[in-house]
Amino acid sequence: MAAVRALLRGLGRATVSCRTLMLSHARCQPEFTSLEEKPQFPGASAEFVDKLDFILPNVISGIPIYRVMDRQGQIVNPAEDPQLSREMVLKFYHTMTQLNTMDRILYESQRQGRISFYMTNYGEEGTHVGSAAALNDRDLVFGQYREAGVLMYRGYPLDSFMAQCYGNSGDPGKGRQMPVHYGSKDLHFVTISSPLATQIPQAVGAAYAIKRENADRVVICYFGEGAASEGDAHAGFNFAATLDCPILFFCRNNGYAISTPTSEQYRGDGIAARGPGYGLQSIRVDGNDVFAVYNAVKEARRRAVAENQPFLIEAMTYRIGHHSTSDDSSAYRSVDEVNYWDKQDHPISRLRHYMLSKHWWDEEQEKAWRKKSRKMVMEAFEQAERKLKPHPDNMFSDVYMEMPAHIMQQRESLWRHLKIYGEHYPLDHYEK
Ligand SMILES: Cc1ncc(C[n+]2csc(CCOP(=O)(O)OP(=O)(O)O)c2C)c(N)n1
Ligand SMILES: [Mg+2]
């Protein structure tokens, strides 16, 4: 840089081409032509005007919502039909409904005090499955916490979902995380962490590394519209744009950040409207239309890899369930509102209508599948209940390579305590 500065000083304010300076930046400043009566500010690429006008905040307003099928499952424009095979559509449907069944059982399990916490994915199944199906298996996923369907589509077994929620000996996280904080190295799904939006700059860093490796991969980063209000979202978007990272920012706009509705979260046109401000190619899609999500992610993925470009996809959907088991959404929204999405515009029933109209599915198959799917979930659930909890010593390991003295002392004091008062603890449920 010092050499470049010296060269610039020597050349004064004359025209200097990027090639002369051999700058390594992907994009360099336009040619400096001081003779013209044009703005020369390095940070702008616009013309002068002589009329005072403020830009209205909603100058980019009403970004349209891309969809492929209507609420009755009919393809709106045949040219946009992804023409997926029956087998693939059935996989979509099986995953979406299996997720729904798993949610019901784990939600009930929490209500009965069997697990400590849970978050359902009701109503957002289309965003998970449509996006997961459009990716390659090795594409790296950073999730927020409400994307279990992505992991399920990739083949994460029911037993593993259950083991994590139960924090039993089958949980790779050894019971140290709250339920729904899944992760899988084999399936390229980075472990969930609760502090909102931290995954966004991390995902951008991973995408930058992938770009440097020149691998045929992208990163997809999921987040809620609420998390998009965090500073980390800004940092992530800007780094991704300026470093030309192959990343797909996938925003699930489900209408709420716990009890705060979108009408109180932002004054612009949702999250997609922010994209152009950062230099991100952006699209808004109907998240309850699994084919629209699939098409948008497929095309964004193709271009992200080919051009090393970041994309922003805002999937409009609705959180039908409570935020989590710690929330009661009847305190801040009406039953009618929830019922509308549950009964009139549900991603699962839209896909089912599509399958029925193709004669790929009927009532009998539906009944048989529901029964089978429930049985599979119940079996995994019963197995998880029977498994022991990880050995208590796991509380003290894995943070330091060598256990420091103060942690050893804590471990010893736990065992001294248990020697005297062990009968008051359910030690039988733990590995010995
Ligand atoms: C940094 C931080 N602040 C606050 C919270 C508490 N919190 C957990 S989820 C949530 C709402 C997030 O809403 P959104 O991003 O829209 O995701 P959704 O739950 O709707 O899927 C909040 C405020 C948190 N986990 N981390
Ligand atoms: Mg939300």
From TrEMBL:
Which subcellular locations apply to this protein?
Mitochondrion matrix
Q: Which GO terms describe its molecular function?
A: branched-chain 2-oxo acid dehydrogenase activity; metal ion binding
The protein's superkingdom reads Eukaryota
The UniProt catalytic activity note for this protein reads: N(6)-[(R)-lipoyl]-L-lysyl-[protein] + 3-methyl-2-oxobutanoate + H(+) = N(6)-[(R)-S(8)-2-methylpropanoyldihydrolipoyl]-L-lysyl-[protein] + CO2
Q: Which residues form the Dehydrogenase E1 component domain?
A: 94-392
> Which Enzyme Commission number(s) are listed?
1.2.4.4
Q: Which SUPFAM superfamilies match?
A: Thiamin diphosphate-binding fold (THDP-binding)
Name of the protein in its database record = 2-oxoisovalerate dehydrogenase subunit alpha
Which organism does this record belong to? Geotrypetes seraphini (Gaboon caecilian)
What's the name of its gene? BCKDHA
